[in-house]
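Q: What structure does this chain adopt?
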Amino acid sequence: MPKQYLLTTPDGEQVSVQEKHAGERITTPSGKQVEVPTLRELKKLPLAPELPAAERAASSGRVWTRGLGMLFSGGLAIAAIGLVVIGVLAYLTPVHVDYPIVKQEVVTKELDGLPMSELLEFWNRSKDPQIFENLRGQMTGYYQHLALRQVFLYAILGCGIGVLLGFGLMATAIVMAGKKPNRRR
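A:
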């Protein structure tokens, strides 16, 4: 914390000033304008007594209550957890896998080019129900992969919204701490 010097005004009012105020005009708590001496003369003044932390916070205009601290801490926890979960999900998200998707045009073109003996052999083998089960299994795996990937991406999006919410709570606590509380008299 910067040094505070005790300046006595011509009216006898004592004001605490810092070195950064040297040579400037300041307004005293009573509302009067006073010129702060130069840095050389300011260092000759007595040091102001150290204020307790609560009084320093009150004099700075920021009031940090337990509730605001809990709001800030909660926002920080939500944002941190969200960022960690996003990192884990991004690491675990399945990458694209190329599943063979056979288009009808390709099959027709290849079948049209086969000699008759091979074409008959193909049709005889295609009567085996296991061939279609294998094809169905490949397609099912492909769609399961797409669905799983979509679930991961939605989870990452949800966590991103959670991170934004956490940052919003932290910002709200900081802004609210900058305002003086309403005191009813």
